[in-house]
Amino acid sequence: MIRAALTAAFVALAAVPAQAEIDIVPVTSPGGIHAWLVQDTSIPFVSLEMRFRGGASLDPVGKEGAAYLATGLLEEGAADMDAQAFATRTEELAARFEFDVYTDTASVSARFLTENRDAAIAHLRAALIEPRFDDVAIERVRNQILSILSSNAKDPQDIANATLDTQVFPDHPYGQQREGTPETVAALTRDDLIAAHQRLMTRDNVYVGAAGDISPDELGVLLDTLLGDLPASGVPLPPVIAPVLLGDITVVDWDTPQSVVMFAQPGLQQSDPDFIPAYILNQIVGGSGFSTRLMSEVREKRGLTYGIGSFMAVYDRSELLMGQFSSDNGKVAEAIGLVKDIWADVAANGVTQAELDEAKTYLTGAYPLRFDGNGRIANILVGMQISGLGLDYIPQRNDLVNAVTLDEINRVAKSLLQPDKLTFVVVGQPAGLPGTN
Amino acid sequence: MHRFVSPLLAACLAFTAGIAQAAENVSRFVLDNGLELVVIEDHRAPAVTHMIWYHIGAADEAPGESGVAHYLEHLLFKATDDMASGEFSEVVRANGGSDNAFTSWDYTAYFQRVAADRLGLMMKMEADRMRDLLLTDEELATELQVILEERSQRIDSDPGALFAEQRRAAMYLNHPYGRPIIGWRHEMETLDRADVERFYNTYYHPNNATVIVAGDVTPDEALALATEYYGPIPAAADLPERVRPLEPPQRAERRVIYEDPRVAQPYVMRAYMAPARKPGDQQEAAALTILAELLGGNSQTSVMGRKLQFEEKTALFTQAFYDGMALDDGSFGLIVVPAPGRTLDEAEADMDRVVAEFMAEGVDEAALDRIRMQIRASDIYAQDSVQGLARSYGVALASGLTLEDIDAWQDILQSVTAEQVMAAAERVFDRKQSVTGIYRAPAPAPQEMMQ
Predict the structure, then answer these.
(1) Cβ A113–B377 below 8 Å, yes or no?
(2) Which of A414, A435, B101, B442 is most buried when burial is the number of CB atoms within 10 A of its CB?
(3) Does the beta carbon of B114 lie under 8 angstroms from any beta carbon of chain A?
(4) Is A42 near chain B, with CB under 8 Å?
(5) What is the pLDDT of residues A162-176, one digit of tens each?
(6) What is the arithmetic mean of pLDDT over B11-36?
(7) Strand order in A249-253's β-sheet?
(8) How confident is the model at residue A290 (pLDDT cuts 50, 70, 90)?
(9) Does residue B176 have a cis peptide bond before it, meaning omega lies within 30 degrees of 0?
(10) Rounded mean pLDDT, B78-98
(11) Do B262 and A148 touch (CB under 8 A)?
(12) Quick one: what percent of chain B has pLDDT higher than 90?
């Protein structure tokens, strides 16, 4: 009885996804800095998300880790404040700043109260424009990073990441880890860090999303205060690289009860006309939830893993379709065999209309639910800009998903999924799994 | 630099874990069958979070059955009399939603986040699996393998997690907080249908649950839907009273030395028994919350960070933490990660010396003012995530607190004085009620690199 009722309810409700009622205002500051804003005065604070294109990929050869160390030092002393004075002031303002650097971007996330907004922005400005890079702070943070590196060197997940990156992106910044190596980090000088800061944060590589209690005019003034004194432009991005994917299995012998597995094959750029069908295809094969092909076969039916998933890894200068899972050493060979079988099956036979329909209802229903909260909205706004999406993307996005036909997604399955290029890295002591590399 | 990996799993400001706002947008109802309903209104987005918190967790398991609460949590996604195995999550996803569940010592919670007009459907399915689970032997066997893989991934592959498990077991002489939520492997391997069904049939009832609905819904709408779907389920007449074995007086300090070749960064940490937030009695917990912030909250400004990381440069990282959100007693802890060349013995001595100096010098009033400002701001920031609010309320209510306690928490925190902080510190720093943990690689050091 209930079952029939549930199905009926599902059909009736799924026909009308919620609408994202979100009003994005493009803002250009008097000084020419662009941002997207969603103004919402219901809570007296602002979330401000900034991304600087380039990130750790701008580190020169031999200076790997410079961007990471420089970014870590932004809050360790600025203008007339040493590290402790800076932190004390942040606490007085109850502002929250996070600085991080990733392969392709440096990110600055800020939350600050309406009641002391100007003071908070002046404080953040000091970190972005006038970091001190005091020797004592450099040594303190350098030691922290060396400790992180020694931990990463013993962490199966980090070993798997590093092994795969090195193989897939030889002689390219993407083959390096953002933290650098113990040797490069130990050798970084204060001048290296000043240069890294100049490369990382410039007016022509910044993208800004804001949400919360601020007007467009106020945001414009704020942006000029905050970013107006950055260098106008930086250095070129690294070259585009085609990933090296040999379709083999590399085993890194590591004494641990459970093997960590990463796998990769060629992906697609978001600008590719096939990106949306490919994105839906990935959702069916290994996206979120328990009912994907990978979760269903490897976890739900056989209990070989706690979780397995795949994702479109879109880099600025390359692209992969990746996945990962962990499985006890005695079971991992079987699990890898299943992944290969699923890959071959979907490439050859495609997915079903039911799978496509289910993925569409999920993706279109979930999309409007993303826009809840200033922090999440500001993140989405900056992500859209750096991906090159337009202001009109949000109202169009679900139509783009719904327009994908079974023929189209199965054409993309055939061209995208390449079982002969599916490359594995296994860190552990897998039974019955000789590496083919 | 806040990226340094804390040895703690959850290293956030203690007071953000327990929101503290005076909540005019929060309503509470109790259905005739005893089910508690809490509604948090937020109409900014057309979404709703629906959570059910069973007041039952790993600390309520029978001896020898560790892991059964968490095993059952996994099995609730299987078949009922009305739904096929896996259908629950498929229906959630077909409606654009997401769902999951989590288990702790004091509670087991299930949640979905969906478009607001799907709330009734979520309640209908959640009510269905409260009493009507149907388990097959095959699914029991497969899911047991899944949780063993989960244990491999979360615990056995992570020396820090194994260390935490050993310390916790040493911390509690008698209370079941000493057992791991996921279970000891040898006990997990023996869990069977009878264990699971006994746990389910004893504890999964409306009068042992709190439903939290947060988002784009009015209290009246939520109450009507809850009455329709949860209302018909009868209350359990024989729900056991929730009494766990309590700790005896602890008369001897303990030391746990954990060695593992996978340890790259050694550290020392000490945890003291500490009282939890109690209904109508949160003063001591508030003082300990402030104490943790003062001693080892922010590395740049806290007492431990300032002295050991900045002045003496003998530590790479320091932290103090207080875990007071629990039904029974929690813990107060200190961590020192020594700088290169500094031994763990020296690190422990540094820890003790800094605390002794703090006890002699007392509280810096300016630091206390800054913490009060941040506590006030944390309430404002917390309002931005209605999901986070729902979770905070759920944890607090499942830990035995009331809405009145949650409402009062901000004012209690703001009113804590320097004297109260010092008095709480005097009481909590009792070595006889502590476990000191040493985390290191065995000597001689193993080979470093994988190539």
Answers:
(1) yes
(2) B101
(3) yes
(4) yes
(5) 999 999 999 999 999
(6) 69
(7) A249-253, A423-428, A258-266, A319-328, A308-314
(8) confident
(9) no
(10) 93
(11) no
(12) 91
Residue A18: which of B46, B301, B306 has the nearest Cβ?
B46
- The stretch A144-152 carries a mean pLDDT of 95
The C-alpha atoms of residue A279 and residue A285 are separated, in whole angstroms, by: 10
- Look at residue A18 in the predicted model and tell me its pLDDT: 57
* Residue A262 to residue A427: CA distance in whole angstroms: 9
**Which SS3 state, helix, strand or coil, does residue A231 take?**
coil
User: pLDDT-derived band of residue B144, with 50, 70 and 90 as boundaries?
Assistant: very high
Mean pLDDT of B260-269: 95
The full DSSP string for A55-82 is GGGGPPTT-TTHHHHHHHTTTSEETTEE
Nearest chain B Cα distance for residue A31, angstroms: 30
Q: What is the DSSP letter of A238?
A: P
Q: How far apart are CA A349 and CA A300, in angstroms?
A: 22
Buried b (16+ CB within 10 A) or exposed e, B232-251: ebeebeebeeeeeeebeebe
| B157 at interface of A, judged by CB pairs closer than 8 A | yes
Set of chain B residues whose Cβ sits within 8 Å of the Cβ of A331? 149
Mean pLDDT of B366-378: 96
A91 touches chain B (CB under 8 A): yes
B306 interaction partners in chain A (CB closer than 8 Å): 84
Distance of CA A182 to the CA centre of its chain: 25
Chain centre to alpha carbon of residue B276: 12
Q: Which domains does chain A have, with CATH numbers?
A: 19-227 (3.30.830.10), 249-428 (3.30.830.10)
Catalytic residues of B: 73
Integer angstrom CA distances of residue A390 from A26, A49, A228, B206, B431: 11, 18, 25, 49, 61
How far apart CA B115 and CA A369 sit, in angstroms, is 7
pLDDT value of residue A297? 96
Residue B329: pLDDT over 60: yes
Interchain proximity A288–B381, CB inside 8 Å: no
Looking at the whole model, is its pTM more than 0.90?
Answer: yes
Instruction: State whether residue A8 sits within 8 Å of chain B by CB.
Output: no
Q: What is the DSSP letter of A389?
A: -
From A255, which residue of chain B is nearest by alpha-carbon distance?
B262
> What DSSP character marks residue B67?
T
Beta bridge partners of A426: A251, A261
Residue holding tokens 């009734």?
B120
| Chain A 67-86, residues with CB within 8 Å of chain B CB atoms | 72-73, 75-76, 83-84, 86
Rg (CA), chain A: 24
Q: pLDDT of A82-112, one tens digit each?
A: 999 999 999 999 999 999 999 999 999 999 9
Cβ neighbours, 10 Å, residue B446: 13
Element (H, E) at A429: none
Question: Which residue from B332, B350, B150 is spatially nearest to A304, judged by alpha carbons?
Answer: B150
Calpha distance A206→A200 (Å, rounded):
9
Dihedral (C-alpha) B63, B178, B427, B14: value to the nearest 10 degrees? -130
pLDDT at position A437 is 58
Residues whose CB falls within 8 Å of the CB of residue A349, separated by 6 or more in sequence, listed in order? none
CA gap B331, B105 in Å, rounded: 14
Residue A369 to residues A18, A22, B47, Cα–Cα distance (Å): 8, 11, 6
Find residues 331-370 of chain A whose CB sits inside 8 Å of chain B. Answer: 331, 358, 361-369
Measured CA to CA, the distance from residue A112 to residue B34 in angstroms comes to 42
pLDDT tens column, B94-122: 889 999 999 999 999 999 999 999 999 99
- Residue identified by tokens 């994988």 is B450
CA B18, B22, B28, B34 torsion-angle sign? positive
